[in-house]
Amino acid sequence: RDRGYTVQKKLLEQTFTEFKEIFQSEEVNGNREHPNMVLYCKKPMSDDRMIVYFCDEKGKTGVKPVETLANLLINPPDGTPDCMRGIIVVRSPLTPFAKQAVSEAGQKLPGRTPIEIDVFLEAELLVNLTECNLVPKHEVMSEDLKEQVLKRYSVKDSQLPRIQFTDPMARYFGLRRGEVVKIIRASETAGRYVTYRLCV
């Protein structure tokens, strides 16, 4: 939801007991599987869709879950147009081959927009970074707002301060290289202090 996607209201209002009844892991061939843990999200007034896939392999996460998500993105089971972006949530780090599979996912089908897969450990998602008092507010800017800011300050985007795409907040919001994020900090003198950073 923090990325601007619509999430079903019933999912947001679930109690922990209801969540466990639906998404309780089951033991399958020595691995715990989340049979229902594939979530579909869509941005309002847009064709931008995303799939969130929860994997629960024992030990390091191999290539198979990455390929499963890639196939879901290319051929969604609900028959809707393919998705360009996915998130895979894993219990343990990816193997080198799995990391390579993530980077190569967008090269499987020539002529289509490359698939983007973000990887998060479950432990990374235990805390919502946006709710931490020590983290300033981040707002991802649309292309139109980005152009307005550059015009207002008469600068090129390359002249803006930078934020690495591997930064925890950049990963949380799914920033792409070239996008700009507005950061709002509290200031004792000015009330608030606003900066703009370019994702690189």
Automatic annotation (TrEMBL):
Coiled coil: none
Signal peptide positions (record): none
Domain RNA polymerase subunit H/Rpb5 C-terminal: 127-199
Main location: nucleus
Keywords for the protein's UniProt record, in alphabetical order: Nucleus, Transcription
Annotated compartments: Nucleus
One Gene Ontology CC term in the entry: RNA polymerase II, core complex
Domain RNA polymerase Rpb5 N-terminal: 1-70
GO terms (BP aspect): transcription by RNA polymerase II; transcription elongation by RNA polymerase I; tRNA transcription by RNA polymerase III
Pfam family, one: RNA_pol_Rpb5_C
GO MF annotation, one: DNA-directed RNA polymerase activity
PANTHER family membership: DNA-DIRECTED RNA POLYMERASES I, II, AND III SUBUNIT RPABC1
Family: Belongs to the archaeal Rpo5/eukaryotic RPB5 RNA polymerase subunit family.
HAMAP family: RNApol_Rpo5_RPB5
Entry protein name: DNA-directed RNA polymerases I, II, and III subunit RPABC1
Organism encoding this protein: Oxyrrhis marina (Dinoflagellate)
Top-level taxonomy: Eukaryota, Sar, Alveolata, Dinophyceae, Oxyrrhinales
